Amino acid sequence: MAYLKKGSANYLKEFDMWRLTGGFTGDADPLLTATVERCGSGGVSFEKIGTGMPTPSSGKWAFPSTGIWRVEANFAHYSTSEDRLIRMIILFTSNDGSAWSNVSFGDGHIDGGASGNVHTYTTAYAVVDITDTSQDKVGFKLTKNTGGSVTTDGGGTENLSYMSFTRLGDT
Fold first, then answer.
1. Which of 1, 16, 149, 161 lies at a CB distance of 3.0 to 4.6 Å from 20, suitable for a disulfide?
2. pTM score, whole prediction
């Protein structure tokens, strides 16, 4: 794995992970950044590589440096009600949030025919070119189809619902 070896030209220089600190029911637009923390607290071993992502604000995630970045979102959900489609969306803005574009979708489905909590996951990936660290940002949005309720799971020391950010290379 030469890309992880220090001194290698392909050495991974930036990587960070954040997770939800608690669950919530319903949609999130944008996903509230007050409910996240860097992974690794609560006894789970994790250390960011490089500078790490700045603490998000108002649903906006800034980047510590320019370059090509891979953004990943993995979220756990459950519901006891009828059929549900849950959609995770990664958003991008190049003007500090004045206008957003959907850049990636990840869908999960809950079959309401079962009794008790039925679980699913949504995963979305995006690759974004960050050319201006003050203007280029990402955000996350969760929606579900009409009716019923879906809970997005978070909290504890596990990474039940989390986001990761990896700098892949120069712009």
1. 161
2. 0.88
